[in-house]
Amino acid sequence: MFHSTHWGSFRGEADPSGLRVRPRPADPDPSPLLATVPSAVDHPARVRRPAVPRGWWEGGQPGPGGTRAALRGRKDGGGSPLRSEAPRRA
């Protein structure tokens, strides 16, 4: 099975040393950036589970001055894990 990125299509295979990436054979000039895909698997910046911005759950108003805008860019305004008990948007 092939996967796609901004840098092209590839086939990923697990081997004892980790993920192995092979560019799609039909790609005449595969990007060297495909070689960075294996390092993304365990990168600390990766979102480990589905999450949404806190302002979405708290029902803040979009746009300037709303809760969502006030939380944007703040470390404590980051994503909250999706939970079944989370409030629903109206």
Low-confidence stretches: none
CA(first)-CA(last) distance: 40 Å
Radius of gyration: 19 Å
The total of beta strands comes to 5
Q: Portion of residues in helices?
A: 10-25%
Structural class: alpha+beta
> What spatial order of strands do you see in the largest sheet?
1-2-3
Morphology: elongated
- Major sheet details: 3 strands, antiparallel
Strand content: 25-35%
The number of helical elements comes to: 3
Q: Kindly state the mean pLDDT as a whole number?
A: 76
Query: What is the string of helix and strand elements?
Result: EEEHEHHE
Molecular structure report:
- This protein is α+β, with helices and mostly antiparallel strands.
- Helix content is 16%, strand content 27%.
- The strands form two sheets. Strands 1-2-3 form a three-stranded antiparallel β-sheet, with no helix packed on it.
- A hairpin with a 2-residue loop joins strand 2 (8-15) and strand 3.
- The longest helix has 5 residues, at 54-58.
- It is elongated.
